[in-house]
Design goal:
Blueprint: H1 4-7, E1 17-20, H2 27-34, E2 45-48, H3 55-65
Parallel strand pairs: 1-2
Helix pairs in contact: 2-3
């Protein structure tokens, strides 16, 4: 586990997975985060947790990387956004 600043200097050989628990505000930061895996021709996976309120950041990342990130909406903790009535 590392902060964005610390992660930029880390070089771990054979790192198979990177887990992103909070979508960064800047798409370039996402690229740096997932760049810790799949280095030097190796393969790796990035698992990203994204809340409904973070979708605008995810869309900016997709635009930057020009790739789709498959979403998993069938896990037991998936919930639709709340529709609270205004008071």
């Amino acid at each position: 586990m590392a902060t964005d600043i610390a992660a930029r200097g880390i070089d771990i050989s054979e790192l198979s997975h990177v887990f992103v628990y909070d979508i960064p505000f800047e798409p370039e930061t996402y690229v740096h985060r997932i760049g810790r895996t799949g280095r030097a021709g190796a393969s790796g996976k990035a698992i990203v947790f994204c809340d409904h309120e973070e979708m605008k950041y995810l869309k900016a990342i997709l635009k930057l990387i020009k790739q789709d990130i498959p979403a998993v909406n069938t896990h037991p903790y998936h919930a639709e956004p709340s529709t609270r009535a205004s008071s």
